[in-house]
Amino acid sequence: xxxxxxxxxxxxxxxxxxxxxxxxxxxxxxxxxxxxxxxxxxxxxxxxxxxxxxxxxxxxxxxxxxxxxxxxxxxxxxxxxxxxxxxxxxxxxxxxxxxxxxxxxxxxxxxxxxxxxxxxxxxxxxxxxxxxxxxxxxxxxxxxxxxxxxxxx
Length: 153
Known about the structure:
Blueprint: H1 2-17, H2 33-48, H3 52-65, H4 70-82, H5 86-99, H6 104-131
């Protein structure tokens, strides 16, 4: 019985030392610059192989640690566009531009996406109009951009 009590006591001290218990503060994950760069690069490699969910996971991780990272924000916009979540992509492109309006890659991606997005919205409106006349199924439209590489500003 003493052994069990001792083990529980030690676990209690260890848990307190490592902040295992419930905490009222939410901790923000911290990544240093090297890890942020590695996550950006890993996400870019995943995107090259069309592993968009993995890329999103990596770039969201960067944004959680550094919400003002324009590169991760732009790359997330490209990823969401690639999986067909155009509303999320639009919001992220706008945010990336707010963060770094001088970045040519971000501006180019946003301009290209906006052109596509407007055409896509017009196409959806035409389909809604036609839908009353005849039901019609369409496949997803895939438009891709290039994620920003880790070496660009």
